[in-house]
Amino acid sequence: MAPFFLLLCLPFALAGHDYGRALSKSILFFEAQRSGYLPHNQRVTWRSNSGLNDGKASGVDLVGGYYDAGDNVKFGLPMAFTITMMSWSIIEYGKQLGSSGELGHAMNAVKWGTDYLIKAHPQPDVLYGEVGDGNTDHYCWQRPEDMTTDRRAYKIDPSNPGSDLAGETAAAMAAASIVFRRSNPSYANELLTHARQLFDFADKYRGKYDSSITVAQKYYRSVSGYNDELLWAAAWLYQATNNQYYLNYLGNNGDSMGGTGWAMTEFGWDVKYAGVQTLVAKFLMQGKAGQHAPVFEEYQQKAEYFMCSCLGKGSRNVQKTPGGLIFRQRWNNMQFVTSASFLTTVYSDYLASAGRNLNCAAGNVAPSQLLAFAKSQVDYILGDNPRATSYMVGYGNNYPQQVHHRGSSIVSYKVDPTFVTCRGGYATWFSRKGSDPNLLTGAIVGGPDAYDNFADERDNYEQTEPATYNNAPLLGLLARLSGGHGGYNQLLPVVVPAPIEKKPAPQPKITPARASTSAPVAIVQKTTATWIAKGKTYYRYSTIVTNKSAKELKDIKLSISKLYGPLWGLTKSGNFYAFPSWITSLAAGKSLEFVYVHSASAADVSVSSYTLA
């Protein structure tokens, strides 16, 4: 079996991935995480309005923002970090996002977050950092549209400080101001005003936010403290304003706050040092360090320590699974994979623009090796791994079907508005073994364990729960991989292009999946033959489409991509495939088969629309 297995996997690796398609899906995930009144152009149509009274009891409007993961709480620290990383992605790779047609969607995703952060900062020294609490929320399994849990709002102020939360929120607003500087200058200025105020608040009234908002401790404890966020905010404010005050802050506090001292092998919503060090190294390579050059060189040494550790060429290296994935922890390990891969990608481009190599303990490393490492991590996420599993929901043929996510695991409110009770949701929906009724397109789940093992089970929250901060760095990563370098100097001043408003192509009406033990239409593919001709290996695939509903299936439209050979058993209809000429409908429980032959892995087959009569 071993030679056959290797033969079968080889074309998958050679075929490569559609990074542009993955990029589109990764941005779509943020629309599924929206709280508040959903806009008219909402593309994730199985979601509805939710959290419409958030903040009301505190006399403040906190409607909007993002749910962080598979629950219905709005946690300020990871939300702000998500917005910072989405903004950094756009700042570095806005040109590639524009070429892909996704810049507008990416900027909308940022603005959905910053609109909420503006609301959450009603006074210079007051910031609301959480709505709802994890304890009561996790006791229930309800759609956001149904939630009956406590929606209390929690804030920081001079008497109850939170320098880490305020610092990260300042960083998010400063970074986002760069994103909107050209297309919406008045909004960019508003964001900068908030960012400056929040930085001053964070610096003047120092303390850890989870000592003030204690309900966050169990879920988003600030282990690293707040010094990294103060440096991180200063770095983003310098990049946004060119104000020497913030550059001096980085230079004067680098030693005392750990910027030059901490040598890290992780980067994420809690520990920002590697991100600070990468940005300061950029300032140094841009020739902006001035009198702080000796200190900035120490920042850069630590940044390069991180890069070398990711490559396995440092004095202390990150752990990796046998399949080559960065492994930091059992619970949602993928967050560290995407954030580290983003840093290695931007640093690769900084080095290439500066015309220099990376100096590691194991020797000099070309910038291209950093990019190759990031690509290897993305490819693993998208399916190039020992399990041949895509950890992006909706990408490829083998992705998680039982995501630990309340909204996707419960029938859409638009399909069945019957109220789902707090505990009833666990009994009816959480415990069912079928696939999710709503596809959480683009979500990056927690991922495999240290040995590349993964269990696709809804109660396996360590591996099947997604999070916004898993996806945020992917925007830049996938834009860079799909669009290439772009042929410009990454160290020159940033100009984010204004998004081009394209008239959306007509979209097929998607019927949300009905409440049943599984989705109404099941698609199963398998390889039925393989042979070699003129040195190339060919595969014959059989695909079975089954009507699993209790009604007659009509007017089905299938989307098939990554098809590189002839197909039999369907009729091509525009950009889609429909029933063959000899079939007009599919009775309940009945199946049809179509086959195709090509020299690659299985094509991506999905249902675009259908009618049940």
Keywords:
disordered N terminus, 19 helices, alpha+beta, 613 residues, 4-stranded antiparallel β-sheet, 14 strands, 3-stranded antiparallel β-sheet
Summarize this entry quickly.
This protein has 613 residues and is α+β, with helices and mostly antiparallel strands.
Task: Give an account of the 3D structure.
The chain has 613 residues and is an alpha+beta fold. Helix content is 40%, strand content 13%. The chain contains 19 helices and 14 strands. The strands form five sheets. It has a four-stranded antiparallel beta sheet. A three-stranded antiparallel beta sheet has the order 1-2-3. A hairpin with a 2-residue loop joins strand 6 and strand 7. Helix 3 runs antiparallel to helix 4, helix 4 crosses helix 6 and helix 10 runs parallel beside helix 12. The longest helix has 25 residues. It is globular and about 75 Å long. The chain starts with a helix and ends with a strand. The N terminus is likely disordered.
What layout of secondary structure does this protein have?
Elements: H1 2-15, H2 19-32, E1 74-75, H3 76-100, H4 103-119, E2 127-131, H5 134-139, E3 153-156, H6 163-180, H7 185-204, H8 209-212, H9 217-220, H10 227-241, H11 244-253, H12 273-285, H13 293-311, H14 334-354, E4 358-360, E5 363-365, H15 367-381, H16 406-409, H17 424-430, H18 461-464, H19 468-483, E6 521-533, E7 536-547, E8 553-561, E9 567-568, E10 571-573, E11 576-578, E12 585-586, E13 591-598, E14 604-612
Antiparallel strand pairs: 1-2, 2-3, 4-5, 6-7, 7-13, 8-12, 8-14, 9-13, 10-11
